[in-house]
Design a protein that fits this description.
heterodimer; A: 8-stranded antiparallel sheet; 22 helices; elongated; B: 566 residues; mainly alpha; 2 domains; two-stranded antiparallel sheet; 64% helix; 2% strand
């Protein structure tokens, strides 16, 4: 999340957005937002009234008054446009910083000559690369575009995308075969096949989504727009029918008053901020370095019921670590530890290294003449070292037991017990022998990430069930699942198990999210309601999912769920706020409309506003300036608190519902005291 | 506490005491569970099914249900029109009353098929007994239709994923024979024993205390009054409705009728809890409805018992409250109580003249009909409430960060569209209708002088009330309005038709669409709809949508009147 520190209103973005605010006044673009479109019509009517009064019409109030109303309405529109524009500008700026990485770079394209590929390399601009083309990259080259390694292995600096400085290894034919345009090859040579045409990468799609070119309303946004359009229609009816009512009561009402009443009553606050909220949601995802293929995916993330998480890397730190040395009866502690260290000298695996680490002894301090290292093989399932007449072995319980018993030595009962105990605790026991005599057991344990169980707790309170997926046996899996606090686990998982689990949950009506990187994961990613592919993953995985995580961080799913919830909540709370405001606005404008003709209605003027004109102006001004006041909230989103749905509703209803009733009373009164000086 | 107020509290307690077991019983009917009345009613129902060639076990989708409803209504519409236009020569006309004019017959038929019972005629002079019986039949049909539709929606809410929502005809027949008929019988018997006429003989001649001879209209009054109250119909046998001593002779009958007004609408809420096995939800719905009801009831009673300050200034004692247009045998409080019951439930029968209420009473009775779901009409009251639930679920679902869902079904654009259209319809019909009338009147006050007994704010209230009453399918009136004209007959007729069928079609469609959707099990992130918090949310939505959109109109009517008077 490298750009999360940027301020909400960077000057250059504001400038850009200000310009856009005027461009967006174009009715053709505004018609997509029915609420603001009616405001635009109202503004146009007020402009006509201004001209009319300027040319000497009477009975519509002074020109100044009408002109002020016109200006406020215009500003209401501009504020709403600004909200959308600044959200777009921020999203675009974020996307641009990513896109910068993919400026024109020379590509070493391999030209097929005749029927065979010969390595005839041509330097072409990256933009001319097409899907299916093959190029090569050598150390120091910037990878010109997204692709999949078809030959070779390389270390790559992906810091331009992820902000992570440690280089990563990408190689052909595995689950880590994808390379991203803009990243830099540090070592080795790779042959890469282009997977997307220029301008069609996920990032390009995301940028288009943010810019609004291909932004489609999400189902939820459509439903909300219908609700808001409905409210707008109600108030059109209210205002239009008021004319004959007033005629009957012999109350003259100016056009400005009608328009003001209408604009104040329709939900302009949420109407003006709605698209900004949606864009900001995608922008927040982008800031979390997640590329979404549609706005809908972010929204769906908020509804997720079940989260499938891989154990390794998500719940536990990538590798197991040695945590204990358990001695066999009658063996000196030092002998065992020395043997354990020696057996691990040639062991490059993290497990092996962790044994040396735990022992706290430098292997070089031992004097070993002519060592012969025994590599781990699938048959022996053990490794070790031979020197002089010493044979040290380290391996799985049954393999070592076999070895020991074959040599005619007894396998100590205490060790068998220990091995069972370690397995039962979720650990992996490694038995160490010297000359086919058991010395002891090294206990390897999964290290659960710190703070992960708190995150699962948080998810549980959100109503999200967490499921751990692991290749471990059920016993180990159960232990880790309990320790980490996940709700369920899939042990000895094969790719199709994930798929079946997802399908079973979906059949129960639940929405499932998962993260994956391998080609094996692709069907499950496609099946899941929210499938997040790692950027390092295969092209197939990236195509199948609906989000791509540039950081390759498996815990990202948790953040994505919160972003989705925030998006919906921001919409809901601002809708509530907007509609609750109507109570105060009614009490400002309705008395103002009738008070001259029906003085008795002074009793309704509970805010004691100065004059009918000042009351109307105050209400319209409040209605306009509340939009810029709420832009920061719309962009940042309403904070999600996992306190249960009812408590959350109570809380938001209190803040935005009750607040929405009270705030405008105060606001309108204050504005009236200022406006009252002039009108 | 005065005995008047105690009487009101006792009345409500009696309603609750009866509504809870009745709700359970209705729930069993909708669930096709066995009841102890089965042995008596199964053979009767069978006769109807045989006659109609109906298979009561054939499952219907929501569209089929609506088709069945509209078919029943269309057929009987034609029959009623025929009777009302020809009753002069048809049998059962001992008093020789004339046939109706075309527009009045249209208005009357519409008014009865829509469960409104807006009456632009006086029953004793405007209808033959055949006419009265036809309308009485309609009081059963329209009420049973309301209950049947409610049964469809309950079934749709109950099922996890289905398109099979029961059989409309069997819901309809069961509602009529097993609920309406038995209770009406009991109520009618009580009325008869208290002096309400029940005869097919013509007018009687009596000698008054002054020694003069007077003609008194009679007829099958007790039967008519019973179903008019229980079916939230409200159309009186006589012009003055239940203010007339023949329809409502004493305080006891007043209690019986008052209870009948609200009994089934409340019982249906408890039936909801029984059918869905969600008692808490039913109590939440009941709580919201009761809160709204009390917020209307208390000001009405305070307003009416407080008396009229203008009269007080003239030195007329107002200690008994505002008694203009009220019956002395009921008093101000019981009349105000009835007025709130009748307007909240879309019943529309009156035991006092609403036109003569204080501005506060006028305001609350109007509001009761504008909201139209604080208990509401039989069956349809819950349907109106259902729309508000959908809107509230949508907004509050977003507020807790999830795609809104109600009883495990996601609320999406299509449902919102329907819900919003239904929510819009009521303000549209009322405001547009009143606007049209105001426009006509304001353009030429002389030509339309006969409309309004009181010009000014009160005249506006009269027009507003008439359209509100029509659109709420209530049927009561601010009787200062001269409403038997072609304009009012046709305009209110159209309003009643639209306001009856669209708000039935909408919720049934939503419930049907939702029933067919995939069921999403609840999690701790799911918004609970059976909590006080959600209840408050529904109340807020009702307040904003239903009450606030009428604020400008009310300001020019009862509110202006109020501030001018006090």
């Amino acid at each position: 999340m490298k750009s999360s520190t940027t301020t909400l209103f960077q000057p250059e973005l504001v400038k850009q957005a200000l310009k856009q605010s005027f461009i967006k006044l174009n009715p053709a673009s505004l018609i997509k937002n029915p609420v603001m479109f009616t405001v635009e019509i109202s503004t146009t009517i007020m402009l006509c009234v201004c001209v009319w009064t300027a040319t000497g019409a009477t009975g519509q109030g002074s020109f100044a008054y009408n002109f002020v109303v016109f200006l406020i309405l215009l500003f209401t529109l501009l504020f709403a446009n600004f909200a959308e524009a600044i959200a777009e500008a921020r999203g675009k700026a974020q996307a641009d910083s990513l896109r910068k990485t993919r400026e024109e770079t020379p590509a070493k394209k391999i030209e097929p000559v005749g029927e065979m590929y010969v390595d005839e390399v041509q330097i072409v601009p990256s933009s001319s690369l097409k899907k299916g083309d093959v190029f090569i990259c050598e150390p120091g080259d910037i990878i010109p575009t997204d692709g999949e390694i078809i030959e070779g292995l390389a270390t790559i600096d992906e810091s331009a995308i992820t902000g992570e400085s440690a280089p990563v290894i990408r190689e052909a034919g595995g689950d880590k075969s994808s390379v991203t345009g803009g990243t830099k090859v540090l070592s080795d040579k790779i042959k890469v096949q282009v997977t997307t045409n220029a301008g069609e990468s996920f990032l390009d799609k995301m940028i288009a989504l943010v810019e609004g070119a291909s932004r489609q309303k999400t189902p939820n946004e459509i439903a909300l727009t219908i609700l808001l359009a409905g409210f707008t229609l109600v108030f059109i009816i209210v205002c239009v029918t008021l004319k004959p009512f007033a005629d009957y009561a012999n109350v003259p009402i100016t056009i400005a008053a009608f328009i003001s009443l209408f604009v104040c009553l329709i939900p302009t606050t949420i109407g003006g901020l709605l698209s900004a909220i949606g864009i900001a949601g995608m922008d927040r995802a982008l800031r979390a370095n997640v590329i979404t293929k549609s706005g809908k995916a972010v929204e769906t993330a908020g509804d997720i019921d079940v989260l499938l998480l891989d154990k390794t890397g998500t719940i536990t730190i990538g590798n197991r670590k040695a945590t204990h040395f358990h001695l066999a009866p009658g063996v000196a502690g030092n002998d065992f530890i020395q043997a354990a260290v020696l057996s691990s000298i040639a062991d490059e695996t993290p497990e092996g290294k962790s044994i040396i680490e735990l022992a706290g002894k430098d292997p070089k301090s031992f004097d070993i003449p002519t060592p012969r290292f025994i590599k781990f093989t699938a048959e022996t399932r053990s490794s070790g070292i031979d020197f002089a007449d010493v044979r040290i072995r380290k391996g799985a319980y049954d393999a070592i037991k076999n070895l020991v018993e074959k040599a005619g030595n007894p396998f100590p009962e205490a060790i068998t017990q220990k091995v069972k105990e370690v397995s039962g605790n979720g650990g992996t026991p490694l038995v160490v022998t010297k000359n086919e005599q058991v010395l002891g057991v090294v206990e390897l344990q999964d290290i659960i990430k710190t703070g992960i169980s708190e995150r699962f707790d948080r998810l549980r309170k959100m109503g999200v069930k967490t499921v751990m997926v692991t290749g471990d046996n059920p016993l180990t899996a159960k232990y880790i699942a309990e320790k980490a606090g996940v709700d369920d686990f899939i042990a000895e998982a094969k790719p199709e198990d994930k798929m079946n689990y997802i399908k079973a949950e979906q059949a129960k009506g639940k929405l499932v999210a998962m993260m994956g990187d391998g080609t094996n994961d692709a069907p499950a990613l496609a099946q899941a309601d929210v499938g997040v592919a790692m950027n390092s993953g295969t092209q197939a995985a990236k195509e199948a999912g609906n989000m791509v995580d540039l950081d390759n961080d498996p815990t990202k799913l948790i953040e994505i769920v919160e972003i989705g919830k925030q998006l919906l909540m921001t919409r809901g709370t601002l809708t509530t706020f907007s509609i609750a405001n109507d109570v105060a606005k009614y009490f400002a404008i309705i008395p103002a409309l009738f008070i001259t003709a029906i003085p008795a209605l002074q009793g309704l003027n509970i805010m004691q506003l100065h004059s009918p004109e000042s009351a109307i102006l105050s209400a319209v001004i409040f209605n306009a300036i509340i939009i810029p006041f709420l832009i920061p909230l719309a962009l940042k989103g309403v904070a999600y608190k996992p306190i249960g749905a009812s408590a959350l509703l109570r809380r938001n209803l209190f803040i935005y519902g009750l607040g929405g009733v009270i705030v405008p009373f105060i606001g309108i009164k204050v504005i009236d005291m200022l406006v009252g000086v002039f009108f | 506490m005065s005995s008047e107020i105690i009487g009101i509290i006792v009345m409500y307690a009696l309603v609750l005491l009866m509504a809870i077991p009745l709700g359970r019983y209705i729930g069993k009917l909708f669930n096709y569970e066995n009841t102890w009345l089965d042995r008596a009613f199964n053979p009767i129902d069978q006769i109807f099914y045989k006659m109609g060639g109906i298979d009561p076990y054939r499952q219907m989708g929501w569209k089929e249900h609506l088709a069945a409803l509209l078919t029943i209504n269309a057929v009987w519409f034609i029959i009623s029109m025929f009777v009302l236009l020809n009753m002069e020569w048809l049998p059962l006309n001992p008093d020789g009353n004339p046939s109706m004019s075309g527009d009045l017959a249209f208005n009357t038929t519409v008014s009865f098929i829509t469960n409104t019972n807006l009456q632009h005629y006086s029953g004793e002079t405007g209808l033959s007994y055949l006419g009265q019986l036809t309308l009485m039949l309609w009081q059963f049909i329209s009420a049973a239709c309301g209950m049947a539709v409610c049964g469809v929606v309950f079934t749709a809410m109950k099922e996890k994923t289905t398109t099979q929502l029961g059989n409309f005809y069997s819901f309809f027949v069961r509602s009529a024979t097993r609920v309406l008929l038995p209770i009406c019988f009991v109520a009618a018997v009580i009325l008869v024993f208290n002096g309400t006429p029940m005869t097919f003989e013509g007018k009687d001649t009596i000698t008054t205390l002054e020694g003069k001879e007077q003609q008194v209209s009679r007829g099958p009054v007790a039967a008519f009054v019973a179903i008019k109250q229980l079916g939230t119909n409200g159309g009186g046998f006589y012009g003055p409705n239940s203010a007339n001593p023949m329809e409502n002779p004493n305080y006891i009958t007043n209690i019986v009728e008052n209870i009948s007004i609200v009994l089934i609408p409340i019982a249906l809420v408890f039936a909801l809890g029984y059918v869905l096995k969600r008692r808490k939800l039913a109590w939440t719905v009941f709580g919201v409805m009761t809160l709204g009801f009390l917020l209307l009831l208390i000001p009405t009673i305070t307003g009416e018992t407080g008396g009229n300050p203008a009269l007080e200034k003239m030195g007329i004692s107002q200690t008994a409250g505002n008694l203009e247009g009220k019956e002395m045998r009921f008093g101000a409080a019981a009349s105000a109580n009835w007025a709130t019951y009748t307007t909240c439930t879309s019943n529309g029968s009156v035991n006092a003249m609403h036109d003569s209420f204080t501005p506060m009473g006028g305001l609350t009775t109007l509001l009761g009909m504008m909201v139209n779901c604080f208990y509401g009409g039989i069956g349809v009251g819950f349907l109106n409430f259902y729309i508000f639930i959908i809107l509230a679920v949508f907004i509050s679902g977003l507020m807790v960060g999830r795609t809104p869902e109600f009883l495990g079904k996601k609320i999406e654009a299509r449902e919102m569209k329907i819900a919003m259209m239904v929510a819009l319809l009521h303000p549209l019909l009322i405001l547009a209708g009143t606007a049209l009338a105001s426009h006509l009147y304001a353009g030429n006050p002389e030509a339309y002088a006969s409309w309004l007994a009181n010009p000014g704010y009160h005249g506006f209230s009269e027009m507003l009330y008439e359209f509100t009453s029509s659109s709420a399918n209530n049927g009561s009136g601010f009787e200062g309005l001269g409403d038997n004209t072609v304009f009012w007959n046709i305009a209110t007729g159209i309003v009643m038709l639209l306001a009856r069928y669209l708000p039935i079609i909408g919720p049934v469609a939503i419930a049907g669409i939702l029933a067919a959707k995939k069921y999403v099990p609840e999690s701790s992130g799911t918004l609970k709809t059976d909590t006080p918090t959600f209840g408050f949310m529904v109340f807020a939505v009702i307040f904003i949508v239903a009450a606030l959109s009428f604020f400008p109109a009310l300001t020019l009517g009862p509110i202006a009147e109020y501030f001018s008077l006090y």
